[in-house]
Design brief:
293 residues; membrane; two-stranded antiparallel sheet; mainly alpha; elongated; 2 strands; 8 helices; transmembrane helix; Rhodopsin_dom_fungi
Length: 293
Amino acid sequence: MFSRHAPYDVHSRFSDIDSDHRGGILWIAALLSMVYSVLSCIVRVYLVHQNPSRDTVALTVATMAGLAQTLIVICQLLSGYGTSISLLDPTSILAIQKLGFVANILFIFTLSLAKLSVVWFLGRLTPNVNLLKSCSALAVACGLWGAAGALSLALRCDLAHPWLVIGVDCPNLWLRWQLVLALDIVIEAALFALSVWLVFNLMMPVEKKLVVVLSFAFRLPWVQCYTLSHLNQARLKAVTDSSSADHDCAVSEIESTGDGVRRVSDDGSQDLFIRESETQERNSGAAEMSLRG
């Protein structure tokens, strides 16, 4: 027989996951990402250490920046990041915002360098002049995207205190992230297209061509998942807003015509009572009838 009691105190866990604490999920994501990126960089450097190139240097710098960004996120978690804001003191909230400000800029910088590494690696694999020109153009686009993304996230809300996002007027912050992500998707699609161009005219088996193309399309499934999730959230929000608007209109019409009355109970739920009209009451002689909705 298994005991119903936990073999250890669940409140002594490294990071709880409940309705008020989501830090455990962030710990897992941050640590797994850090381990994966560091191991990948070590393997890459080991394979080409005798003949280093600019793409390897860019990847190494990107990995170091990503490691720094992950460490900053860990500092955020130690300050209470992922915990309900009602459980945090003002000092912790301020520290989380400052650390998050730096982490976001490092995040864009890391992605930009990683994309540059891939573009330069593609350019090193081909003698095709047109493909080389396309790689150079995409490298410039990656640099501009990184600079513009970092600036758009750095110069936000209150310019005197740009790290503040709580308790300040910052209406375009989410829009800025959407624009950064949209351009990120475009660049990823361009990288995938360049990889297809690279192997399209090569005399090699289709299976090997697919291996090359898929190795450059690693992020595309995640982009598709995020896009579908974002569209689904937007659709649900639209349906919810529409239903709420229809409900408000219906209640307003009932109240304005005098055919019903709305009651708000102590627990905040709303009950709607619809009474029969006076004509029906006189004809039927019945008592007032209410339909609880």
